[in-house]
């Protein structure tokens, strides 16, 4: 009989790598499968907040994962549709960085290396089929023109917004989607240690951003609801060009500037249909589960925590082979408890702010409201997440 893994994880992003690391340390045989060779680029805003950094410390990989390429953030600036701008200074209690901007190409590779150090095996390929059998799950993986098959007791779907694992389980768990484009711009004058968010009318109700990676290099991008984008007359490249040509931005870009690695990617926004996150011997985590914040589109933190929860639940269920969809509902219970309130609140707030650009401008003119908004996004969500995580 072929070798049987305890868990096969499809997708080596933060969700999959955290799950693999945790299970590997517990002594389980884990195979981590990803279609890319690492290090690899990934479309993202590259922002890591307090909860994510705290989880890295909890897993004792902070020093390994957060390299000198991580750029600390101390402030945020929000620019409204018609010119109003408000800046917020974050008040952190720790001397360590609480928010950093770090390229996913570097961060994800560090997490994969940490998982491999815990004994996790890795292979390059794309999962293209699942078949339940008497021994667990037979997983078919395509690498170029070659196909391989692996036997495993359980599968974790961490394969992102276009998750094949989610499609194999039946009706998709996510209900809302956004589309984002990101590039790296060098040769721009940036406000030190400040993330900048722009609510331009052309992107409404989406937003554009400048997230600094150094004094003159930024992650620049935009994101908007998929339905809204399909109804618009613009392309993503056209919208990004409009943003960079806006008077507030263009004046800060040098003639020798370069824009590279512009790529688009879909984002599955929460909250998901919770009961669809599990199937027989299968669990969905991260973007594959539709856990990205519907207000910001950010998904790294929720992905990491969902990976940790999935690993914990599987570690409890694997010894007795209690891996049916019903028996894996404990995972659903825990992720719902951890994320449901945040995702519902963020979706409601998005609807309120998104009523019209004029409505948003009025809100931004209230400095108290803007401070509360940024404090919620970059602080309160994370503190509540950490408290809830300890109570699970």
TrEMBL record:
| SUPFAM superfamilies (alphabetical) | FAD/NAD(P)-binding domain
Domain FAD-binding: start-end pairs: 5-318
InterPro entries per the record? Answer: FAD-bd, FAD/NAD-bd_sf, Geranylgeranyl_Rdtase_fam, Geranylgeranyl_reductase
Q: Which domain of life is it from?
A: Bacteria
The molecular function GO annotations come to: FAD binding; oxidoreductase activity, acting on the CH-CH group of donors, NAD or NADP as acceptor
Query: Which Pfam families does its entry note?
Result: FAD_binding_3
NCBIfam families given for it?
Answer: GG-red-SF
The molecule here is called FAD-binding domain-containing protein
Source organism per entry reads: candidate division TA06 bacterium DG_78
